[in-house]
Amino acid sequence: MRHGSDGSAVIIRFRVAGGLLLLAHLLLVGWLTLRPLDVPWITAPNFHPLAGIKADLALGPAEAARRICEGLLLLAPLGVLLPMAGGRLFVSPVASLVRTVAAGTLVSLGIELLQTGVPGQVVDVDSVLLNAAGVALAHLTVVPAGRARLRRRRRQRRGRGRALRGDEVSQGRTPTIPRVGIAP
Predict the structure, then answer these.
(1) CA-CA distance, 68 to 73, in Å (whole number)?
(2) Helix (H) or strand (E) holding 140
(3) In 3D, which of 97, 168, 158, 161 has the Cα closest to residue 133?
(4) Taking a C-beta distance cutoff of 8 angstroms, is the pair 77, 137 a contact?
(5) pLDDT tens profile 94-128
(6) pLDDT score at 139
(7) First and final C-alpha spacing in the chain
(8) How far is residue 85's CA from residue 143's CA, in Å, rounded to a whole number?
(9) Which of 108, 102, 109, 67 is nearest to 83 (CA)?
(10) Which of 7, 99, 124, 133 could share a disulfide with 46, CB 3.0–4.6 Å?
(11) Comparing C-alpha atoms, which of 16, 149, 15 is closest to residue 88?
């Protein structure tokens, strides 16, 4: 399965696994957030940033922690799965973070907009903020270390490949034939 000594097959496997896990996670998130809920009453939508978080904090530390952690964890795997599906090893860490958080924010915004048509689901701008923060935290804790490890493994493989090629016995120069004409 290995196509070259640079480990490109490993990168391809990471990309495929990342894409499949990303699809599975998005399907789970869609099922969790876009299914109709049978509730006797619905709260008003929250369009004021941080107002929902303040209301959660007023419920007490345990309930506030649960609700805030739910918002942070819902899309946090995107912080790892999006770069994994991209499969880039040599990329600016800042550019990767910005791209990943922007994509996670757009996914969160799309979910919130789709919830406007789902019975029992309420739009909350704080969900978008918490989801984006969760994506950023997951990205910062996993992706730079993972890329560094993959780059290190790739360098080690290349070093071993050169060592093996250097041990081969030379059989002399490759013969060349001067002035071989090629017909038009």
Answers:
(1) 9
(2) helix 125-167
(3) 97
(4) no
(5) 999 999 999 999 999 999 999 988 888 888 999 99
(6) 97
(7) 40
(8) 12
(9) 102
(10) 124
(11) 15
